[in-house]
UniProtKB/TrEMBL annotation:
<dbReference type="Pfam" id="PF00067">
    <property type="entry name" value="p450"/>
</dbReference>
<keyword id="KW-0408">Iron</keyword>
<protein>
    <submittedName>
        <fullName>Cytochrome P450</fullName>
    </submittedName>
</protein>
<dbReference type="GO" id="GO:0017000">
    <property type="term" value="P:antibiotic biosynthetic process"/>
</dbReference>
<dbReference type="GO" id="GO:0004497">
    <property type="term" value="F:monooxygenase activity"/>
</dbReference>
<comment type="similarity">
    <text>Belongs to the cytochrome P450 family.</text>
</comment>
<keyword id="KW-0479">Metal-binding</keyword>
<dbReference type="GO" id="GO:0005506">
    <property type="term" value="F:iron ion binding"/>
</dbReference>
<dbReference type="InterPro" id="IPR001128">
    <property type="entry name" value="Cyt_P450"/>
</dbReference>
<keyword id="KW-0503">Monooxygenase</keyword>
<dbReference type="GO" id="GO:0020037">
    <property type="term" value="F:heme binding"/>
</dbReference>
<dbReference type="GO" id="GO:0016705">
    <property type="term" value="F:oxidoreductase activity, acting on paired donors, with incorporation or reduction of molecular oxygen"/>
</dbReference>
<keyword id="KW-0349">Heme</keyword>
<dbReference type="InterPro" id="IPR036396">
    <property type="entry name" value="Cyt_P450_sf"/>
</dbReference>
<dbReference type="InterPro" id="IPR017972">
    <property type="entry name" value="Cyt_P450_CS"/>
</dbReference>
<dbReference type="InterPro" id="IPR002397">
    <property type="entry name" value="Cyt_P450_B"/>
</dbReference>
<keyword id="KW-0560">Oxidoreductase</keyword>
């Protein structure tokens, strides 16, 4: 195959959809250059993404399967290093992955998610009460004043973090999705969080609860040799980030989509479509996890006619896949809640498919329906073009979504 000139990925994530159109024009899998000058592949076509995610020859374990890293050719200043070297179930491969995933899945089973419904409703109601207490005419950022506290509290409930420890939970993980911070900042952030998490796990061991952390500790005690403290902490660290930022994005993106398209909002508020239709269309058109590093072929592979060599970094472009015109037609970029097929891969596919699907859907369904019921006059608080994208090409969200909850009396 002829060598393509790589598309340089914009690390600020200014316009990921426009960038994806350029990538798509190069075929279902395109050569890209990542920040730091790193060559890689971006899988953009829906079918190619589906095949790549189902292909056991694509590993997520950088230490074992990234040729350039093994050869010492990746410097410590490579801006996405912390994504490659995370050490948790999302980067584990083969039997290691299966073992960690089994344990985490146990924490999501047995009706735990459905059992969280009353507490999610309580958190949503409390946050909306706080917003309702603001003066008419006040403009608030729905992301920081509603979405963020909601998703953080829910993940804290899931893993059993007591109220007094939640601020510390907020500090770790989140800033690392920003692709403009330095590797030192990212590392310092993780280090601070790890110390706090070690204290948390020890406290939980002394005082168990009905939560996912207690399940992980119980699994460790049942079979100590197979689950280390570090693995528990890495898993919690990952859950904390994976369980919050994408969910917050889904909520913020959907509010923004409805407030900028009154016809679509009308359809759901008059019951012509369901909140699930709206959420699905949002996942398709605005995948909250946009462009995820990394996978590495363990052998030379060919997917949808594109040959990738063993050990080359591959990114999965969920945002592009959801808007693939081959599947969704020429208007794939249009947000349309009445669309027949809203098929998307926003939660992934195959063995690494998101474990939090049910929880994320539940949270966002409760949050959106309650928000629009409580504030029927909800409007965008600034012109739509002033709503800036999150500084990331990995995640797809807005920095802030300012809204006017109720018009002022005058
Ligand atoms: C709208 C919200 C969410 C979206 C769009 C989302 C998206 C994703 C995606 C695309 C993956 C697959 C990554 C891959 O292919 O390698 C993934 C994996 C994962 N997600 Fe989510 N996620 C969301 C919410 C959550 C929540 C609420 C949790 C937990 C509280 C969670 C926990 C995880 C975990 C643990 C994995 C790793 C699974 C594995 O590697 O086996 N996610 N998520």
């Amino acid at each position: 195959m002829e060598e393509q000139c790589p598309v340089v990925i914009d690390r600020t994530g200014r316009d990921i959809h426009q960038e994806n159109s350029r990538l798509r024009a190069l075929g279902p899998i395109a050569r890209v250059e990542l920040p730091g000058g790193m060559p890689a592949w971006s899988v953009t076509g829906y079918e190619a993404v589906r095949q790549a995610l189902a292909d056991p020859r694509l590993s997520k374990d950088a230490r074992r399967h990234w040729t350039a890293f093994a050869a010492g050719a990746v410097g410590p200043d490579f801006p996405l290093l912390s994504w490659a070297l995370m050490d948790n179930l999302a980067t584990a491969h083969g039997e290691d992955h299966a073992r960690l995933r089994r344990l985490v899945m146990r924490g999501f089973s047995g009706g735990r998610v459905e059992a969280m419904r009353p507490s999610i409703e309580r958190i949503v109601d409390r946050l909306l009460d706080e917003l309702a207490g603001l003066a008419a005419g006040a403009v608030v950022d729905i992301r920081t004043s509603f979405a963020q506290p909601l998703v953080t509290e829910v993940v804290c409930e899931l893993i059993g973090v007591p109220a007094g420890f939640r601020d510390e939970m907020l500090r770790g993980g989140e800033v690392n999705v920003t692709t403009t911070i330095t590797p030192e900042e990212a590392a310092a952030n993780v280090a601070r969080w790890r110390g706090a998490m070690q204290d948390f796990v020890e406290a939980k061991r002394r005082l168990p609860g009905d939560d996912l952390t207690t399940d992980l500790i119980a699994a460790q005690e049942a079979d100590g040799a197979r689950l280390t403290d570090a693995e528990i902490i890495n898993t919690l660290h990952f859950l904390r980030a994976a369980g919050t930022v994408p969910t917050m994005n889904l909520l913020g993106n959907t509010v923004f989509a409805l407030l900028t398209r009154p016809d679509q909002r009308e359809l759901v508020l008059t019951g012509q479509v369901t909140w699930d239709d709206v959420i699905e269309e949002s996942l398709r058109a605005e995948a909250p996890v946009a462009h995820l590093p990394f996978r590495f072929p363990v052998d030379d592979v060919e997917i949808c006619g594109v040959a990738m060599r063993k050990g080359e970094p591959v990114l999965i472009n969920y945002a592009a896949a959801g808007r693939d015109p081959e599947l969704h037609g020429q208007d794939a970029g249009r947000f349309d809640v009445t669309r027949q097929s809203k098929e998307n891969l926003a939660f992934g596919h195959g063995i690494h498919r998101c474990v939090g699907v049910a929880l994320a859907r539940l949270e966002v369904r409760i949050a959106l329906s309650s928000l629009f019921a409580r504030f029927p006059d909800l409007r965008l608080g600034v012109p739509a073009e002033q709503v800036e994208p999150q500084e990331s090409f990995i995640m797809n969200g807005r920095q802030a979504v300012p809204v006017l909850l109720r018009p002022s009396a005058g």
